[in-house]
Amino acid sequence: MKHSLFLLLALISLSYNSCAQDKNTVNTAHSYEIIVPELQNPWGFAFLPDGSILINEKSGKMILFKNNQKIEISDLPKIEHLGQGGLMDVALHPNYKENGWLYISYASSNDENDGAHTSIMRAKLNGNKLVDQEVLYKALPNTTAGQHFGSRIAFDNQNYLYFSIGERGKRDINPQDITRDGGKIYRLYDDGSIPEDNPFLTIPNAKKAIYSYGHRNPQGMAKHPVTGKIWTHEHGPRGGDEINIIKAGKNYGWPEITYGINYHGTKITDKTSLPGMEQPLHYWDPSIAPSGMAFITSDIYPKWKGNLLVGSLKFQYLDRCVLKNNKVVFQERLLDGIGRVRSVRQGPDGYIYVGVENVGIVKIIPKK
Predict the structure, then answer these.
(1) 3 and 9 in contact (C-beta within 8 Å)?
(2) Does residue 286 have a cis bond before it (omega within 30 degrees)?
(3) 2: enclosing H helix or E strand
(4) Rounded distance, CA 367 to CA 31, Å?
(5) Active site (annotated) includes residue 148
């Protein structure tokens, strides 16, 4: 009898989660073409001015895809491959054509303690080599934990550099403590110096680069094309993946408030709101495990202008989110079942490009 009851409850739970996820429409009006084949985990990629693509493989390889050929970039910094950490995001300076600076995030160690933590570096390409390397930020202390490196990079309209660092699995220690790295969004000048108006600059012992805190593991970051604000999304636990608009000095609540629960089903907290803590613009339940994020501004997809794209690792599709008054009012699956979607960019040609694990980089093409 107990076994039958358990089986019935399990089936009800599975049915609920499937229905909750399957309510999203599957788009069949678009196809795709594989542009860069045979990539294992294209964690981040960026388009260079000549149309070539610079790709970061999480395993530690940086690849230049040019003239339909893959060229491996040499002289990278020492990269630790630890759990979810490795070579992660890549972004170009907004004035890349003039200054040549590119920015990468990666897991790095040092001689202070075992393990690794997120680092942010700027460097330049000289032929097929990475040169003029400057570490702009190194999170500490290193830890042997393999989760929650964060690592997305974005620039705003004033060319401030923003990046995310996850709480590294230490939810009760890092995200609510501004004297510790992890569970934060950071802001620097493009050369790594601290802006004079950063919100915690005058707080004793605070990490001066912190811009907002109370985050779990932000793996999506993009500048809104109209407002110029930095938007992020982050992994929740079981349920509670979030989209947030980042504001200076604000507390986004993790783990004091959340719409999710522990992976094994117990509560983290019974609070979904508290005074002084920001509410997400949107949350997913069940979790989609989001990664990668981009806004659509292209005339190639005229009905999608202003929409937000978010990759799903868990359900293996690209989520098109229609926004109205800063609310997600409709969602649609693109590339349904293609594989774990890790990264997404709108290319200089206006097409949407998507990095898919064990597939490569694909281009979304409207059917005529």
Answers:
(1) no
(2) yes
(3) helix 2-22
(4) 6
(5) yes
Mean pLDDT of the chain: 93
Report which secondary-structure segment, H or E, holds 97: helix 96-99
DSSP-assigned beta bridge partners for residue 34:
362
Q: Which residues pair with 74 in a beta bridge?
A: 129
Strand partners, 138: 119
DSSP-assigned letters across all residues of 29-91: SEEEEEEEE--S-EEEEEE-TTS-EEEEETTTEEEEEETTEEEEPB-PPP---BTTBSEEEEE
CB-based contacts of 47-56 (< 8 A; 24+ apart in sequence): 47/92, 47/345, 47/347, 47/348, 48/92, 48/96, 49/96, 49/97, 51/348, 51/349, 53/353, 53/361, 54/90, 54/102, 54/125, 55/90, 55/355, 55/361, 56/87, 56/88, 56/89, 56/90, 56/104
Question: For the residues 121-135, what does the mean pLDDT come to?
Answer: 98
pLDDT of residue 24: 85
- pLDDT at residue number 114: 86
Structure tokens at 190: 């493009």
Rg (CA), the chain: 20
- For residue range 136-154, list pLDDT tens digits in order: 999 999 999 999 999 999 9
Query: How far apart (Å, rounded) are the C-alpha atoms in residues 137 and 145?
Result: 19
DSSP state of 27: P
Pairing assessment for the beta strands 327-334 and 25-26 based on DSSP bridges: parallel
How far apart, in whole angstroms, are the C-alpha atoms of residue 43 and residue 58? 6
* Torsion angle, alpha carbons of 214, 138, 115, 207, to 10: -40
Contact 216, 183 (CB under 8 A): yes
Residue type, 152: R
Contact 62, 124 (CB under 8 A): no
| Cα separation, 96 vs 112, whole angstroms | 34
What pLDDT, on a 0 to 100 scale, did the predictor assign at position 110?
Answer: 84
175-193 pLDDT per residue, tens: 999 999 999 999 999 999 9
Which residues make beta-bridge pairs with 70?
65
Instruction: Choose the catalytic residue: 3, 30, 81, 148.
Output: 148
